[in-house]
């Protein structure tokens, strides 16, 4: 879920004035007439217009904020960090558990075997 607040460069606490100002600034910068032939600018302009259409309408914004909260997405566009359960496959020394792992993780002889065909 793309964060509409990030698209406009405003915080979730922004009022309608701030949202409108951000939209106007960005729409001037990325308008297809100002950036002829730039497909990325046109796509970004479309995203900006879509974001403004939702955030400028109080009802649509309230619905969007509720979905944003459900998805547990932070205003910066990052999902909330989940607490790890258990050791997540890592041993106490920080190396991931692997059946093929040798006692010495710095032993590179297996690399020679694998890529150069040289055996011990």
UniProtKB/TrEMBL annotation:
GO biological process, alphabetically ordered: DNA replication
Lineage: Bacteria, Bacillati, Bacillota, Clostridia, Lachnospirales
Alphabetized Gene3D superfamilies for the sequence: DnaJ domain (1.10.287.110)
Record region (Disordered): 71-103
Ranges of compositional bias, category Polar residues: 85-96
Protein known as: J domain-containing protein
Residue ranges annotated for the J domain, each copy included: 3-68
Protein origin, superkingdom: Bacteria
Keyword entries, A-Z: Chaperone, DNA replication
Record-linked InterPro entries: Apopto_cytoskel_mod, DnaJ_domain, J_dom_sf
CDD domains: DnaJ (cd06257)
